[in-house]
Specification:
Number of strands of chain B: 2
Largest interface: A-B, 137 and 138 residues
Mean pLDDT of chain A: 89
Shape of chain A: globular
Distance between the termini of chain B: 29 Å
Strand order of the largest sheet of chain B: 1-2
Radius of gyration of chain B: 24 Å
Strand content of chain B: under 5%
Number of helices of chain B: 14
Order of helices and strands of chain A: HHHHHHHHHHHHHH
Helix content of chain A: over 70%
Structural class of chain B: mainly alpha
Low-confidence stretches of chain A: none
Largest sheet of chain B: 2 strands, antiparallel
Number of helices of chain A: 14
Mean pLDDT of chain B: 81
Structural class of chain A: mainly alpha
Radius of gyration of chain A: 26 Å
Shape of chain B: globular
Low-confidence stretches of chain B: 1-34, 325-329
Order of helices and strands of chain B: HHHHHHEEHHHHHHHH
Oligomer: heterodimer
Number of strands of chain A: 0
Distance between the termini of chain A: 58 Å
Strand content of chain A: under 5%
Chain lengths: 322, 329
């Protein structure tokens, strides 16, 4: 194992050196020119960025779009048949429906709970500790989070003692234990909760920062006018943080649309829990159908772009208004 | 209107502003963490009290499952199979055996090393590239400068799924036009992961660096130029040291993101025990050892140790990276 570690570190150092030379060598070469290089230097400094983005992001994206019109192996042109599959087949449709559920569920809950905790944390002696408790799950992997909650959802048949906290509570309440991750259609919601658990910290922290920018004079004026706390919240605070709310919303939606790890690890899309990103991988790797996989990937991109565009639009509006 | 700010320059809050704005310094949003927001809520009001109770309940809801994980990881196999972890408080029968097994036989110790070998370069490389580029975008002049920057940031939209199929094929077979090999195949698993993670971390990194470096006081740079310093010298001696907060923010964010990544790792490297990172091994354990909760939970904790430690040590930088890059994911 030490051998592998050393090899890995050496490879990293070698790569770093190569990268550094990509900047230093051309720089030295053009420094000898009469005018010291001028605008060529700018190109040297952004050169590696442009090359990497072109080769690893732009080119593959174009290629994926291209492949979506071809068959499984990418050899035969099949026109729109992958696309028709992507929007009409039951597999793809059920995945899309689930993605919609995920978007609504995760966004609604994380933003609501996040906002409540952002407000509520200030009611404690150590607000940052409170926020840290909600925020810590962001540090762990989705795989780890799934394991944590699979333990909570664990199922043993009625009569035996339960090992999962949820079923234990259910049994204590006098009901029958259930296999929460198997029973459709509620199982998707139990998976959605895992992401809510992980992602609420983001909303909490960003809301918390935004709340500090609400103009104090407006708050005081409202209080002088006799406004109750909830009224102040509704009429003054919420409008003041509208741009932040949009940003959180869009970031959450875009993240949720790409959900993969949780579904893959918990159920691999079975029992009706499949989502777009998981099906894309299934098509690409298990079924080796590059055409369909590419169509799904482009579909994902097409769904994401409007949200990002809206975000940019909102921020520009906000900037123009202020 | 003021926000909690840290570094040179302009006030106001930076939460998800996009590149067409004037560059602003990346500001830490919690440099006074216990400073409370003023939104007309006080602890003593009814609303305040309700809020407190609700929040306390939420905290419990958030923390208890992790407690369950921790306790289960110290239980014996029989105990874990027969009853719930809460029984361990009545009848503790605790052992370190699970951890020993998981670190040794299941290869998790090695996986942690692999995760680090993947995550650290995947953090350093985009930083290197982004800092050079950020400096160029802010303080150098060349044609298409704004266009290239706008394009780079716009590419934040592209999810890594877009590249999976073509890159997989390109890495295994190389890229050739007819007889000519344009790009050779790349077998080295680490190199594959470094390339992909770097490329998909670059848009955010470039955005953060350009904004930050662009907000450095122009006088310092101008003075250095008057003194005859070359661009490289200015970069090395002035820009880099001053950019530490932004570098730290992105570094923490990217490190955690890559360390916890599963999709890219499993796609480009697969399940080779020698090279697989922690997330891949862990996911595999779920599939094959689902019934062995005592081992799975120990493995999960081992996988969480590094990220949690990094997170708690650098919480502020992480938060600042998140709020400044709220459009990423």
């Amino acid at each position: 194992m030490l051998n592998a570690a050393v090899n890995g570190v050496l490879a990293a150092l070698a790569a770093a050196l190569v990268l550094l030379l990509c900047y230093l060598v051309p720089n030295v070469l053009i420094a000898r020119r009469r005018n010291g290089g001028g605008h060529l230097q700018g190109w040297i400094f952004v050169g590696p960025l442009v090359v990497i983005m072109a080769l690893l992001v732009v080119a593959p994206t174009i290629r994926t779009a291209y492949l979506s019109f071809f068959d499984k192996t990418g050899d035969e042109f099949v026109g729109l048949s992958n696309w028709s599959w992507a929007v009409t087949s039951e597999t793809a449709r059920s995945a899309l429906r689930n993605n919609a559920l995920w978007v609504v569920g995760v966004t609604a809950f994380t933003m609501t709970i996040g906002f409540i905790v952002a407000l509520g944390s200030d009611m404690f002696k150590r607000p940052s500790f409170v926020r840290a408790a909600i925020f810590a799950p962001m540090a762990i992997s989705a795989v780890g989070a799934t394991i944590i909650w699979q333990l909570v959802y664990a199922f043993r048949p009625a009569g035996s003692s339960q090992v999962g906290l949820l079923n234990e509570l259910v049994v204590l309440a006098g009901r029958e234990p259930r296999a929460w991750l198997v029973n459709e259609p509620t199982n998707t919601w139990f998976l959605i909760w895992i992401m809510i658990w992980m992602w609420t910290g983001f909303a909490t922290v960003v809301f918390s920062a935004a709340l500090r920018t609400v103009p104090a004079d407006q708050i005081e004026a409202a209080q002088l006018d006799g406004a109750k706390p909830l009224q102040t919240l509704w009429y003054i605070v919420l409008p003041a943080i509208r741009t932040t709310t949009t940003v959180i919303l869009v970031a959450t939606v875009v993240t949720v649309l790409k959900v993969f790890d949780i579904v893959r690890v918990a159920t691999n899309g079975q029992f009706g829990t499949n989502v777009l990103a998981n099906e894309m991988i299934n098509q690409a790797i298990s079924r080796r159908d590059t055409g369909r996989a590419s169509a799904l990937a482009i579909l994902l991109l097409v769904i994401i772009v409007p949200f990002m565009a809206y975000n940019a639009y909102r921020i520009r509006q906000d900037r123009l208004a202020s | 209107m003021s926000a909690v700010e840290l570094t040179p320059t302009t006030g106001g809050h930076l939460v998800g502003k996009l590149p067409d704005e004037e560059p602003r310094g990346v500001e830490l949003v919690e440099s006074a963490p216990d400073h409370r927001a003023n939104v007309g809520l006080r602890r003593s009001t009814t609303t305040g009290r309700v809020l407190r109770v609700v929040t306390a309940g939420l905290i419990l809801l958030w923390l208890i499952p992790s407690l369950g994980l921790l306790v289960t990881s110290f239980r014996t196999a029989d105990d874990a199979r027969q009853n719930g972890w809460w029984n361990a408080f009545r009848d503790p029968n605790l052992t370190f055996e699970n951890y020993r097994t998981v670190l040794g036989a299941s290869g998790l110790g090695r996986a942690v090393m692999n995760s680090l070998l993947i995550a650290v370069p995947s953090t350093v490389f985009p930083l290197m590239i982004a800092v050079f580029a950020g400096y160029a975008f802010s303080w150098m002049h060349f044609r298409y400068r704004e266009l290239i920057f706008a394009t780079t940031v716009a590419l934040m939209v592209v999810p890594v799924q877009m590249a999976l199929v073509p890159l997989l094929s390109a890495f295994s077979r190389g890229v050739s036009l007819g007889e000519i090999t344009v790009l050779p195949s790349i077998d080295h698993p680490l190199l594959r992961l470094w390339l992909v993670n770097t490329a998909y971390g670059l848009p955010l990194a470039t955005y953060l660096m350009r904004n930050y470096i662009g907000s450095l006081p122009a006088e310092i740079i101008a003075a250095a130029r008057v003194d005859g310093a070359s661009a490289l010298a200015i970069f090395w001696r002035i820009v880099l040291p001053l950019s530490k907060p932004a570098i730290a923010s992105f570094a923490i964010f990217q490190f955690l993101f890559v360390y916890n990544d599963y999709l890219v790792a499993v796609t480009f490297v697969g399940l080779n025990k020698d090279t697989a990172p922690v997330t891949v091994i862990l996911a595999d354990l779920v599939g094959s050892r689902g019934e062995n909760a005592h081992l799975l939970t120990a493995a999960a904790w081992v996988s969480m140790v590094v990220p949690l430690a990094v997170f708690f040590a650098f919480q502020r930088q992480f938060v600042s990276g998140l709020t400044a890059g709220a459009v990423k994911s």
